[in-house]
Amino acid sequence: MQDNRLKVIALEQNIKQGGARNRALDIAKGKYIMFVDSDDYLALDAVEKFYYAMIKNDVDVVIGSLNNFNTDKNTEGLFLEMKRYANATKKDEGKYDISQNFNGYRVGPVAKLYKKALIEQYNIRFPERIIQEDEAFHWCYFSVANFLYFIDGVYYNRRIHSNSTMYKRDSENLGAIDMIDSLEYIYLFLNKNKLYEKNKENYKQYFVTHARLVLNRANSAQHKMAVKKLKKIERKYKLNTHLFNTALENIFSIKNKDIHKIITICGLRIKLKNKKLIEKQKADEIKNILQNIKRESCKNYQNINNNYESLKKNLGAIINSNKEILTAQIFNNLILQKEWIKNKEFIP
Question: pLDDT tens for residues 195-215?
Fold first, then answer.
């Protein structure tokens, strides 16, 4: 079939699904993006339905439902999307605000329609050469999206079989370490685009949930490496998730954080203001103020000396004036005007 709208990209290396999707994003010309895996298929009217839902409701992403079918066992199962969402308690089709919280959403990129402009604005891409790329793309896109639309009906059919990535990932514990790389990828994207503070609590919750999932799924060979990488990320980016607190720390511990003291008693964390840290912070602020005053005072004193020499040349009447008194008068007047210091008796 010849169609100028179709483009085939030949890849010399296996860069996994994320890399293949990235190459497609690099050359895509349309306003909207929809992903379809090679062994899946769409309903005949899927693109039309998603497109009109997008433009009619002015949203950033449209989501439909999946029909999973297993070619090995010849079984089918409807995967209804709507019931799974924390902020959607009904199955009704409609528009939802996701600007504040999007934890709990299905992360797979299929059965969704995205805005190309939003993807390009933030240079959103999949991590390559890993098999947990969906998590990262989902978080990056949803962190900059404001509204989604649930479309009623099943428009995507996903094949599950013994050789599929999804089946192997779940049955053979593949991707445990890749998930950690995906978690770091998400943090770096949020931090780069100044979105971390807005999504801080959601991200930390997500990090802890998936870190525990990784540790539970990792085999004996992966577990040590997983713990090492997770601890490194938590320490490097100061996440303070308490994920690796010892049993004793959960029973009782006292830690300093910023100007607070965190007391843990039987798993209950109490946050108190630390008076010593507050006093130290105030002392440091006063020290900085005094140093600034001293620095600016010296700068202004030099300017006064320069002004004095200029006045001495141009005003013959004051050539024989007392230099110290004149300098002090000019210095005091300038300093008072600029409010650097307010001591009238100051004589340099």
Answer: 999 999 899 989 998 998 888
Q: With bands split at pLDDT 50, 70 and 90, how would you rate the model's confidence at 308? A: low
Tokens describing residue 12: 């010399």
HEC-encoded secondary structure of the chain: CCCCCCCCCCCCCCCHHHHHHHHHHHHCCCCEECECCCCCEECCCHHHHHHHHHHHHCCCEEEEEEEEEECCCCEEEEECCHHHCCCCCCCCCEEEECCCCCCCCCCCCECEEEEHHHHHHCCCCCCCCCCCHHHHHHHHHHCCCCEEEEEEEEEEEEEECCCCHHHHHHHCCCCHHHHHHHHHHHHHHHHHCCCHHHHHHHHHHHHHHHHHHHHHHCCHHHHHHHHHHHHHHHHHCCCCCCCCCCHHHHHEEEEEECCEEEEEECCEEEEEECHHHHHHHHHHHHHHHHHHHHHHHHHHHHHHHHHHHHHHHHCHHHCCCCHHHHHHHHHHHHHHHHCCCCCCCCCC
- Contacting residues for 158 by C-beta, under 8 A, at least 6 apart: 37, 40, 66, 67, 68, 69, 79, 110, 111
Query: What digits encode the pLDDT tens for the residues 62-106?
Result: 998 888 887 766 555 555 554 444 334 345 789 999 998 887 678
